[in-house]
Amino acid sequence: MTQKEPITVAITGAAGNIAYSLIYRICTGELFGNDQTLNLNLIDIEPALPILEGLIMELEDSNFHLINKILFTIDPFEGFRDADYAILLGAFPRNKNQTRKDLLGKNSPIFKIQGKALSLVAKRTVKVVVVGNPVNTNALVTAKYAENIPKENIVALTRLDMNRSLSQLSRKLTKNVSNIKNVFTWGNHSASQFVDLSNGYLLENSKKTPLTELVDEEWISGEFQKINQMRGKEVLLKRGKSSAGSAANAVLDCLKSWIYGTETYVSMGVISDNNPYNVPENLIFSFPCTCKNGTWKIAKDLKPNEFCKKMIKKNVDELLEERRIAFELLKD
Amino acid sequence: MTQKEPITVAITGAAGNIAYSLIYRICTGELFGNDQTLNLNLIDIEPALPILEGLIMELEDSNFHLINKILFTIDPFEGFRDADYAILLGAFPRNKNQTRKDLLGKNSPIFKIQGKALSLVAKRTVKVVVVGNPVNTNALVTAKYAENIPKENIVALTRLDMNRSLSQLSRKLTKNVSNIKNVFTWGNHSASQFVDLSNGYLLENSKKTPLTELVDEEWISGEFQKINQMRGKEVLLKRGKSSAGSAANAVLDCLKSWIYGTETYVSMGVISDNNPYNVPENLIFSFPCTCKNGTWKIAKDLKPNEFCKKMIKKNVDELLEERRIAFELLKD
């Protein structure tokens, strides 16, 4: 097979656990194809550099034939150079005693610099997936300062929430997950997230059965939402470490949808401009999206019920407040 | 694509770091194909069960369409049931104050039980890859007690040693690793391991150049061997954790070679019966192997030089001593 000219994939937080799960899967060709060579630009903070060096030794020892070049750096202006893809995993984690405001205060400046760096040195067509929390506002800050990059190119990961909802439904219905369609989350990747089943259906033998006919409303608005909200904590409790493999998997799912297209709705945190759901402009908000030819579109034809509208409003309010805090902090 | 009936893949030490890297890659279909559904039997010790539960939650949340069923257990007689493949990652790690004998004392009884379990409940055609150290002797103990399983079905992983040698040569020669052929290790997976370059060549534009013409003998017998021996420690020092992703990758490489065949030599730790290199019978020894139709063969036509013969002898002596200790300990 003739190999394609290398593309450049930049990853921040590259010494972390999500990266450790993600990078190997990218190197096998699972995401970009078995003929697509790669320049990997691995970015992390200074104290993590030895870990990055160890990772690079292991990648060398894996002899991936698709790797053209690996670079590691603490400088986003070097790491994002000519990037075709940027996956922003790195962020300060939330401590027990920190408020959401503290967290925004720690992370907004990082994403401001990364936005500026992307703007200055990445390809204008770069596709950016933000994963570090608080992800919606981190992505918004990135978009604000990445002046030369279209806002459409910057997406916040909300796919793990969707994947978790699907997996829970699959167990509840004892049906294969690939038969469950059009389940997605609205709004913020936070405890306020709202999983919308009202458009979802089970596809069996070409027959579509609405999910609302298969699970009762009490379960949907109660246990189902709660399990989704608590899933991350539950995994952390069991493993003693936060979700890494499933987060990396969700990043891959998100990028596969974005690059190769979708047939049904998927959750993506995208810029809210021109949405038909009364979400104010200039927020990064999780919407049901469809993708085609490398671009996403917000699904336009849905009719959220009153409860859903209320939950969208709640998420809007939360994100407006996050934006206010972040932009206030970043004022020059 | 129509999916094939599930095969059963059993993994011990499934809560560990190598497993965490390995299992996701197996679930994508990278090893057994994108149409091969899987029963995953995850085995670990009691204290690790919560970690396993957390891993299973994450696998659920990754919605791999190839997973048919996941089972987790501490009992190898349950975990190996109907196994088509068994990957034995679990072993007591070596503490600073432990001798090799102490380590054999800890691990031999585990692999004895696992051998018995494989014999009793796995498919007779099961392919077993042993990874936990001391890997050669652990594999030999497994083979001894797996009376119903042909000894040819049990392989000790020495592929990571080969992969590390290849990656080092690739950097030394600044050549793509896929152009470097027939480099392999003899003997024990230990500090005594010997990487043999005397049959290796660089393939460029259909021209084969012997590696011995490209790198000088002093480097081969000095720095090259030393870097290979120290590579694992070096990674541990940098990462603060031992090699996991590259070890998982080597397991996949080993199984791909075994299942799908090879064109050149690869390192596999296999039963020494009927080898032409004066290695006594009934040892698990790393030989240059070729694979075809799911079976391996020791390369027969090599002419080890005097130094290589000396190194083979050194490895034989070490493995005879390990075998003596292990079998002595296991006497009923």
TrEMBL record, chains A, B:
Spans traversing the lipid bilayer: none
Q: Name one matching Pfam family.
A: Ldh_1_C
Q: Which InterPro entries match?
A: L-lactate/malate_DH, Lactate/malate_DH_C, Lactate/malate_DH_N, Lactate_DH/Glyco_Ohase_4_C, Malate_DH_AS, Malate_DH_type2, NAD(P)-bd_dom_sf
Question: What's the catalysed reaction?
Answer: (S)-malate + NAD(+) = oxaloacetate + NADH + H(+)
- Recite the UniProt keywords alphabetically: NAD, Oxidoreductase, Tricarboxylic acid cycle
The record's Gene3D superfamilies line, in alphabetical order, gives:
Lactate dehydrogenase/glycoside hydrolase, family 4, C-terminal (3.90.110.10), NAD(P)-binding Rossmann-like Domain (3.40.50.720)
Q: Could you name the domain of life of the organism this protein comes from?
A: Eukaryota
Report the EC code(s) recorded for this entry: 1.1.1.37
Give start and end of each Lactate/malate dehydrogenase C-terminal domain: 158-323
| Family the entry assigns | Belongs to the LDH/MDH superfamily. MDH type 2 family.
Protein name (database record): Malate dehydrogenase
